[in-house]
Design brief:
By secondary structure, the protein is an alpha/beta fold. It has a single domain (20-195), classed as Vaccinia Virus protein VP39 (Rossmann fold), CATH 3.40.50.150. It is built from five helices and seven strands; from the N terminus they run ααβαββαβαβββ. The two termini are 27 Å apart.
């Protein structure tokens, strides 16, 4: 995902309307941080956390073709899906969650993980979201900066480690990182560590 904000109503330097969908499709092909989550990963986490128990869900990194969104539609869930490439140019760092958001869930860009984790905990502390599930590389658990963020909230964290690597959609080979779900304040997860 690119860090630039793009609004479909904006004009480029030549006075042409920017087509956010085409830019999004190009980004999927060229941006190493753009990895789409396969259906089985979404279905698995939805079952583990009992997704139907949440009343106001936010998918902050999910565009029209997201498996998170498509499965939520099938389940008739109430959600808000936003993406920097949607028709409003919704940037995670400036977009407000839906009212009474009780779950943020997504596969965020790995290249911005420090900023995303920090902002997610800020949303928790501001009572704008009650819980979250972030699909991240296992290395997200490392480094003093991230460890300090996790340790402040360890009483409500659960880590779900994949037993095998995920073959992300649109990639010709397995994405070369072990991954895990880092979940905060999820009632159905009564242990701190799982292998899935």
């Amino acid at each position: 995902m690119s860090s630039k904000k793009i609004n479909i109503r904006q004009m480029d330097i030549f006075g042409n309307l920017v087509d956010a969908k085409n830019i999004y499709e190009e980004d999927k092909e060229t941006n190493a941080d753009h990895v789409a989550t396969p259906r089985w990963v979404v279905e698995n986490i939805y079952d583990l956390i009992d997704i139907r128990s949440f009343k106001s869900i936010w998918f902050p990194f999910n565009n029209y073709d997201s498996q998170f969104k498509l499965k939520a539609d099938e389940l008739n869930l109430k959600y808000k899906a936003t993406h920097i490439f949607d028709d409003c140019g919704n940037d995670f760092f400036t977009t407000e969650p839906p009212d009474n958001c009780d779950l943020l869930i997504s596969n965020p860009p790995f290249g911005q993980q420090n900023e995303i984790i920090k902002h997610t905990f800020e949303l928790v502390e501001q009572n704008k979201i009650k819980s979250f599930c972030l699909l991240l590389p296992l290395s997200t658990l490392e480094t003093p900066t991230r460890a300090e963020m996790w340790e402040r909230h360890v009483d409500k964290l659960s880590i779900l480690i994949f037993k095998k690597r995920i073959k992300f959609l649109g990639k010709t080979q397995v994405f070369n990182k072990g991954c895990c779900w880092i979940c905060y304040n999820i009632k159905t997860l009564n242990r701190r560590l799982y292998w899935i």
